Amino acid sequence: MAQLFAGTSGWAYPSWKPDFYPQKLAQAKFLSHYATQLNAVEVNFTFRQLVKETTLAKWLEQTPPEFSFTIKAHQVITHIKRLKGTEDFVPRFLATIEPLAAAGKLGPVLFQLPPNLKVDLEVLRDFLKLLPRRLQAAFEFRNASWFSEETYAALREHNAALCVAETEEMTTPEVTTAGFNYYRFRKPNYPPDERKAMVERIEQHLSAGRDVFAYFKHEETPEGAIYARELLGSFQK
Known about the structure:
Elements: E1 4-8, H1 30-37, E2 40-43, H2 53-61, E3 68-72, H3 75-80, H4 89-96, H5 98-102, E4 106-112, H6 121-130, E5 137-140, H7 149-157, E6 161-166, E7 180-185, H8 192-207, E8 211-216, H9 223-234
Parallel strand pairs: 1-8, 2-3, 3-4, 4-5, 5-6, 6-7, 7-8
Helix pairs in contact: 6-7
């Protein structure tokens, strides 16, 4: 049965008190509390550093068996090498998150490309060949030149998801390219009618047998976490 995984991009935000975290909750207990409210998180700090095994052990200990960690790919892959010549680094990066996979808690890996990286289908196809078939990969293209049937076909061939990202500047076309769907809801506010439409979109994917991963904007305010909790609750009644 298809499942919705909903959360935010990170959890270590004291500014979420008292609306999401209890006022007196210690920061060391944020993740364990977060995991009682939401069933997934998108980890962004892996964009800048390789995660340590001791850190992963803590995350695994503080979350229930059904919890899922989505990992943002390291900037060496997406921003420095820009998907080219990553044959050595990709396996090294994936090895660091293997403990999550072994515990059944690894969600998709998000490859977020820089806004100034324009479409290059040959580079994309070569990169996709490097990824293990068992890996759930999602691609966030932030340059509109990528939005074409050729790109979608390349993703479909490797069961990689087009990340549908909504920002104030640009929204990705709603196209399914994998056996799962991936959303990044990045706008600061979502009024009730937009949240209702979200539920309807996700319902269609779940009915078609596809898991859905949905992550809201995080940082200064708890709105994203509250939206995610509400969204998850819509499917738990």
